[in-house]
Specification:
The protein has 14 helices and 14 strands. By secondary structure, the protein is of the alpha/beta class. The structure holds adenosine monophosphate.
Amino acid sequence: MKILVINCGSSSLKYQLIDSDSEQVLAKGICERIKIDGVLNHTASGKDKINVEAPMPDHNAAVKLVIDALLDSEHGVIQSLDEIDAVGHRVVHGGEKFAASVIVNDEVLKAIEECNDLAPLHNPANLIGIEACRTLMPDIPNVVVFDTAFHQTMPKEAYIYGLPYSYYEKYKIRRYGFHGTSHSFVSAKTIELLDKPKEDTKVIVCHLGGGASICAVQGGRSIDTSMGMTPLEGIVMGTRSGSIDPAIIEYIAKKENKSIDEIMNILNKESGVMGISGRSSDFRDIDEGIRNGEERSKIAFSVFCYQAAKIIGGYVAAMNGVDAISFTAGIGENDSAVRAAVCERLTYLGITLDKEANKKRGELTQISTADSKVKVFVVPTNEELAIARETLAFIGNQ
Ligand code: AMP
């Protein structure tokens, strides 16, 4: 079967066509600058990469260009749209309504729309992508896979904030967690590597990328995660502050005469590793800054690693133990210095790192020594493949 995976942002649309039997990517690409001018970057397996500059006044136009690229006689990989069995869409927020993936119908779209307030930057764009696919490929089923769904197994003690309970009841203000597709994929892979029945496993997944979140997975179910009602909570990230004292917002507002909107923009886009280092949000640049002896790059690096280790320690307490810790995403898969610095703070758990294995990048590797009490792995994440698998499972169950 062939599954088209769509990840739609407000001005971009990423896609992959995946053969579900071989799990190979047949073609992938990204439409950028939608509603501005429009560029499609398309690569089909075994063929030359192409860049198409074409007007993309809306997401329908972008989806149309993706379809044309997939069908193209020279750069395409299919002869007819009938070859696509289903489309799997990434949707950021499913609120409390969705604890699992779901096939799209009018009712589902309305329910997703009701979650728009919780993810105003993401959910409306995700919905536009689904609508565009429904219009242009009316005979192909659409499945939505939510970033939040995996965390719906969290117990109340993990998701209720210390606020008046009526805010939860009235506005659904609670912790939801994100990166669920990645945490689910990586924890499942980690559990496969453990010599234990799934129900007895305790795993911590560190998804450390531009956005970063850590998740405690007990018996294969998420029981806590570091992002909250929005992806701003938790560990310091590329440009996001992570958790801060909420009173800081009022303090900055008064000192700098700024509005809430302006401060939220700073917390989302000018803070985190970027804000601390004053250099970059990218860990490759931070590592270079450290090599150049830049003090603020050193601070950014150690704040990031310290916070990650502190959250991991909290999750060991939450699960009363841990069998394995897995690192994933851009930083987790590639930055051996970050992994080493985090694990150095976890020797009390009996963790010893295999320094040679930890030099590897971007491949499934055990980076702890054979006698380490807790296993540590690098597990490359693959959110598109996870979405394709979910979509396939859903279509298979119809
Ligand atoms: P992601 O959001 O998972 O795509 O991760 C993106 C982030 O991964 C970038 O902003 C970098 O901070 C980090 N990253 C990617 N490649 C490397 C690398 N080779 N070394 C260190 N960090 C990296």
